[in-house]
Amino acid sequence: MRRKRVLPPAVFLVCTTALAGTAPAAASPQTAPAASTAAPAAPLRILLTNDDGYNAPGIRKAFERLTAAGHDVTIVAPLTNQSGTGTKMMSAPTIAVKHPEPKVWAVDGTPGDSVAFGLSEVFEGHAPDLVVSGTNFGPNVAGLATHSGTVGGAVAALESGVPAIALSTGGLAVPDPTATVNAMGPTVDFAVKLIDRLRSRARSGPLLPKGVGLNINHPIVGADGKGTAAGVVATFQDPQAPLQPDFTDSGDGTWKVNVQFRPQPAAKGGDVEAVSADKIAISPMNADWNTGPADFAVTSALIAGLRP
Fold this sequence. Notes:
The protein has 308 residues and is α/β, with parallel strands linked by helices. Helices cover 31% and strands 22% of the residues. The chain has a single domain (9-21, 41-303), classed as Survival protein SurE-like phosphatase/nucleotidase (Stationary-phase Survival Protein Sure Homolog, Chain: A, 3-Layer(aba) Sandwich), CATH 3.40.1210.
């Protein structure tokens, strides 16, 4: 989701430091000795969710590789595909939950419902260190992120004070299913590296600044999707809405819905530009709708003198 509020500089330092696909920055003489003697960071307890469903290939790859990296991972994800549900949650008085295998819970609801159930029941009394949502099949950039269930799952975690990462695989081009699934491997490998970076820098503190999450979009590189990204870039959510709805009156009180794909030129520094250049886009986000101080000042001026 696009957030205009000024974010802590620490977020951008995390995002812009060289990671996978870029040359590592040289360590300064002052920091090299400390890094070599630091104790390894402890593995994390991770709640893993998505919007494609608990048995989708992206979440299963994430579970496999995060577990192999030593983390304690529990899937709490939708029972069925919930793509496009955004931040929707708790819209019914009851909810069905299945527990088909150890470390896996399938919630018959949205990603937000899944995270809410996971935090309240599966992790009751001891919140996870991190919520990872994805990896999603296809991108969550620009206006797509605003309506994304993957991003919605991460937002639900942020609302509860738990650090969160939304993870997606793909660009704005029509996805090739095989290449996209193949690219989920590099996507999750990068996520493991990023999480290692976060926990090593956090030490005993928070993984991310309070209330801040990361929306990560990994490109599909190469015809088979197995290529390495060209770099890692801290971005913002491109303001464009590439999907434009069109309605046709059927004459019987119903309307046919057609969605046109109409991408606009990418905003410089935005997530669309980065992914289109085969780079990994990392956009910091907040779990609220606050804008920056300039917009607040404009609004205050617009309403000055108004009375009920």
